[in-house]
Amino acid sequence: MTGADDTTGTERDGADPIKVMVVDDHPMWRDAVARDLGAEPGFEVVGTAGDGEQAVRRARAVAPDVLVLDLNLPAKPGVQVCKELVRADPALRVLVLSASGEHVDVLEAVKSGATGYLLKSASTEELIDAVRRTAAGDPVFTPGLAGLVLGEYRRLASEPAPATAEEPSAPQLTDRETEVLRLVAKGLSYKQIAERLVISHRTVQNHVQNTLGKLQLHNRVELVRYAIERGLDEEPPDSARPR
Question: pTM here?
Answer without folding.
Answer: 0.69
